[in-house]
Amino acid sequence: MPDQKRLLELALKGLEAERQRIDEEIADIQKQVRGGGQRSRSQTRPQSHANPRPQSAERPAQTGSRLTAAGRKKLSDLMKRRWAAKKRAMTKK
Question: Residue 41's pLDDT band (boundaries 50, 70, 90)?
Fold first, then answer.
């Protein structure tokens, strides 16, 4: 009987340790989802100091679209053709 009690105590300790590990992982994921910023130590990547990434203040502000007027027109024409083809296919049914 004492052996069974000892076995149950050890099992309980192991499960509590596992629950603690899982709770820590859940907290880490929740922190990342909420925008906590830093990744966990196991997920961080070493960054090269020879070519550091520019800070957000050094980056030029991006305004507007990256498409040129000609690119927008080309996309517009393609979409009009696709919708026209889809309409024709729907009316044939």
Answer: low
